[in-house]
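Data deposition worksheet. Section B asks for the primary sequence of the deposited chain exactly as it was used as input, without tags or linkers unless they were present during the calculation. Section C holds the resulting structure in token form. Section D is free text for depositor observations; keep each observation to a single sentence. Incomplete worksheets are returned to the depositor.
Section A, Depositor: J.P.
Section B:
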Amino acid sequence: MDAKTEIEIPQKLKSIEADIRQWLKYKAEKRQSYKPTGIASMLKRWCEYQPSQVATAIKVAMTNNWDGCFPEKIPASNNGFITPEYQHPVAPDGTTLF
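Section C:
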């Protein structure tokens, strides 16, 4: 399944739809596209996390050229926002990655 294929984004994740579509594009570019069952499972699992955690996990995974995206590895504070160390990763030269 590529980034152009119609998928139903769960309501909880609508605010990060662009990030999800970017993830699908990234995976397609790596020739690791999802099948319908796989994407449904991924979205269901991502709904267990805060949208900010998922969006950050997507950006971290792409930045590091990872094959998988792991929102459970992105800590969230009690008020629903991600912790500062994950908000804007910095490259070795000091520039912000995203």
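Section D:
Helices lie at 17-29, 36-46, 51-63, 84-87.
The CA atoms of residues 46 and 54 lie 7 Å apart.
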